[in-house]
Amino acid sequence: MSRVLVIGAGGVGSVAVHKMAMNTDIFSHITLASRTKSKCDAIAKSVLERTGVTIDTAAIDADDVAATTALIKSAKPALVVNLALPYQDLAIMDACLASGVNYLDTANYEPRDEAKFEYSWQWAYQDRFKDAGLMALLGSGFDPGVTSVFTTYTKKHLLDRIDTLDILDCNGGDTGLPFATNFNPEINLREVTAPSRHWESGQWIEGPALSHKQVFDFEGVGPKNMYLMYHEELESLAKFYPEIKRIRFWMTFGDSYLKHLEVLGNVGMTSIEPMMFQGREIIPMELLKALLPEPSSLGPLTKGKTNIGTIATGEKDGKARTVYVKNICDHEEAYAETGNQAVSYTTGVPAMIGAAMMLTGKWKGEGVFNMEQLDPDPFMDMLNQHGLPWTVEDLDAPLAF
Ligand code: NDP
Fold it and tell me: Which of 40, 98, 170, 349 has minimal CB crowding within 10 Å?
């Protein structure tokens, strides 16, 4: 039975808090804090209606380390779950160190002025968390997160040696809107417009954004174009699994989404370079975010399924084997349960499970950890019990290039 402080009241924060409130044996008291308190209050109202659990809410600017430290000291949590934006990661880690509390997030730190998607800043906290006897768990969403746990599960139970790993992320959901991103638009567009990069034979191979694609028939969705992209879990998987010769990440996009993106890019709206507009400095991407629908408003509109998984090739008992581990999640079912669509659901549920792993002591350690470093079994069990069941399937052949 533990107290928890969740920071961030977007779609992911909303799902995580609803799921925590459904597990009061682990999460005995929940405080939800975010920049806009009214969003926390709206989530608290929904949590009370759906689960009968009352949670505390607070306003916080998590960029302010002193204010966040004071909030942690007054809320007295055993764990801070950071579901704000990647920009806040280091400030919240600093506040956790200042108040002696464990930390969890779902996305790696990003400076506002450069899209890097790398763990270097957070891995640099290793000694400080270790010396303080605290644990920081990085990337407890779906990807990174569940896909990293799928990889460790594959290595523990399905393959003696992994040679290649492909992560396939398909959102077959349709909002009926001409253009919307299914999680924070700024972070989503930064990811999609970054050069593609994958790990092969000990080095990173880079190419232009969205320049390589193939069709894959996703169960529950159908055939979709998926594009080779860089995604942050590639860095930690390459570090912790040096045996894997090639690691790639693929994400599906519809033609209309890509057409909008191309036009927005051509006119400069996806730029993160500050510019002067009518005497004021603005960042075009931030203006675009303000114009696009809030991901948390897409719940009632989205129909269809997500299908995210890992295909690994390697050897088991001396024989070649290819295994596909995946979860399929239905947008409308996710919305009925928590009031949020499946992209928020598939991130918020693993955030709750990662928090449960830490609070129950099933995962413990001192220092900074990525998901693939920890025992996959209790996490995989909780996925099955809490709305993200997974399957294992043998494939006849590896993914084509
Ligand atoms: P949203 O943009 O919907 O929500 C972010 C929330 O953080 C908002 O409530 C926002 O407040 C709050 N926030 C922003 N800045 C601050 C600040 N300085 N202080 C306090 N609160 C702040 O994002 P999502 O819910 O879609 O995503 C949340 C996180 O999950 C992101 O880091 C995202 O990258 C990550 N993610 C990870 C995935 C994975 O699979 N690993 C997949 C999808 C998302 P306000 O409303 O006032 O702006």
Answer: 98
Query: Is residue 227 one of the residues assigned to a domain?
Result: yes
259 HSE (CA, 13 A, CB side) = 5
Q: Output the domain CATH number for residue 289.
A: 3.30.360.10
Q: Is the CB of 108 under 6 A from ligand 1?
A: no
Distances, alpha carbon 383 to alpha carbons 17, 314, 360, 388, in Å: 16, 25, 16, 5
Out of 5, 12, 57, 352, mutate this one to test ligand 1's pocket (max ligand atoms within 8 Å of CB): namely 12
pLDDT digits (tens, 9 = 90+) for 185-203: 778 888 888 899 999 999 9
Residue 196 domain-assigned (yes or no): yes
φ, ψ at 377 (rounded to 5°): -60, -50
| Residue 48 domain flag | no
Distances, alpha carbon 206 to alpha carbons 136, 194, 230, in Å: 30, 10, 9
Question: Given this model, what pLDDT does residue 144 score?
Answer: 97
Structural domain of 307: 146-330
- So what's the pLDDT on residue 187? 81
185 lines ligand 1 (CB under 6 A): no
Per-residue pLDDT at 193: 86
Structure tokens at 234: 């590639």
Q: Supply the angle between the helices 65-75 and 89-99 in degrees, to the nearest 10.
A: 50
Give pLDDT, residue 192: 87
ipTM, 2 dp: 0.99
Q: Which of 62, 113, 120 is nearest to 89 (CA)?
A: 62
Structurally, the chain folds into a number of domains equal to 1
In a domain, 214, yes or no: yes
Please work out whether the CB of residue 127 comes within 6 Å of at least one atom of ligand 1: no
Cα–Cα distances in Å, from 363 out to 157, 255, 356, 372?
19, 42, 9, 12
Sheet bearing 79-82, strands edge to edge: 56-59, 27-34, 2-7, 79-82, 102-105, 135-138, 367-370
Q: Check: CB of residue 337 under 8 Å from CB of residue 349.
A: no
Q: How remote is the CA of residue 82 from the centroid of ligand 1, in Å?
A: 9
295 lines ligand 1 (CB under 6 A): yes
CA angle 155, 140, 314 (to 5 degrees): 15
